[in-house]
Amino acid sequence: MRSGVISFFIEPEIVSDAATRIQSKKGIRIRVAKAVRNVRIAALELTTMKAKTALNRAPKSYSAAVVIRRAVRSDLTAVNDIYNHYVWHSTCTYQEEPETTASRRQWFGQHGAKHPVVVAEVNDEVVGWGSLSAYHPRSAYRRTVENSVYVHHQHHRRGVGSLLLNDLIVRARGLGHHAIIAGIDAEQAASVALHDRFGFQKVGQFRQVGFKFGRWLDVIYLELVL
Ligand SMILES: CC(C)(COP(=O)(O)OP(=O)(O)OC[C@H]1O[C@@H](n2cnc3c(N)ncnc32)[C@H](O)[C@@H]1OP(=O)(O)O)[C@@H](O)C(=O)NCCC(=O)NCCS
Questions:
Q1: Could you list the pLDDT tens digit for every one of the 226 residues in the chain?
Q2: Which residues contact 122 (CB under 8 A, 6 or more apart)?
Q3: Is 152 helix (H, G, I), strand (E, B) or coil?
Q4: Ligand 1: which residue has its CA nearest to atom 1?
Q5: Ligand 1, CB within 6 Å, residue ranges
Q6: Architecture field, domain 2-225
Q7: Residue 11 burial by CB count (10 A; 0-12/13-18/19+): exposed, middle or buried?
Q8: What one-character-per-residue DSSP string does 175-217 give?
Q9: Closest atom of ligand 1 relative to the 61 alpha carbon
Q10: pLDDT in the model for residue 65
């Protein structure tokens, strides 16, 4: 790690949560970094040692900083473009028809303060996004969320997915959530490996519950208890 500083950023709303645990965990550093778009931002905590390894790769992969921030409505076209590539080409989503702009806007509107949508930006270009969604509408599930992470297919293996997932985990803790669930198609080795790196554990597998591209698909469920 260069000079003990991680050169990517989070918003101030989750800094205080990270700061409360700064004394209790090794490998956590936090500092106020600089202002981007009038938002004070700060470098952040590292969730696990495995995550630390992944996160350390990120700043070296781009000449500019990767900024992780809350999404705004003007990001939704980029969010949808990134996602629809996988609708057409991958089993990582079981959606078979492209997400429309209208449905994406509706989805975004349903993500309130407890269920953030974030984007990763490099040189003002959105290269990935992540979200925490309500896991189940029944009220006793209210502190359980399901996460999504999608990185533009031309930006893989540069640490963006790790930055997004780390950010979501930190936010989930800060928001008082207790568990994160990831439902992942069993063929998606990259996604399984990414979640494993952040401490998610496999809790189950449903066999042949999806059918896409002419074949039956299994879904693996991973969980991180916060
Ligand atoms: C899964 C995904 C988000 C990973 O994003 P990424 O930016 O490439 O991830 P990172 O560069 O941070 O990689 C972190 C680690 O994940 C694992 N990983 C990532 N891509 C991998 C691949 N193709 N094969 C195996 N492991 C992989 C590795 O352990 C990697 O660390 P390493 O590069 O040091 O070996 C990305 O591949 C993606 O958007 N896939 C399609 C959407 C998807 O499956 N989303 C998850 C469902 S919610």
A1: 333 333 344 454 444 444 434 333 444 444 444 433 333 344 445 556 566 665 655 555 666 789 999 999 999 999 999 999 999 999 999 999 999 999 999 999 999 999 999 999 999 999 999 999 999 999 999 999 999 999 999 999 999 999 999 999 999 999 999 999 999 999 999 999 999 999 999 999 999 999 999 999 999 999 999 9
A2: 62, 64, 65, 66, 67, 155, 160
A3: coil
A4: 191
A5: 54, 57, 86, 92, 148-151, 156-162, 184, 188-191, 193-194, 197
A6: 3-Layer(aba) Sandwich (3.40)
A7: buried
A8: TT--EEEEEEETT-HHHHHHHHHTT-EEEEEEEEEEEETTEEE
A9: 11
A10: 84
Q: In the numeric block, which tokens belong to residue 198?
A: 């952040």
| Residue 38 neighbours by CB under 8 Å, 6+ apart | none
What residue segments make up the domains of the chain, in order of their start?
Answer: 2-225
Q: What is the pLDDT at residue 27? A: 43
Contact 179, 33 (CB under 8 A): no
Query: Are the C-beta atoms of 155 and 128 separated by less than 8 Å?
Result: yes
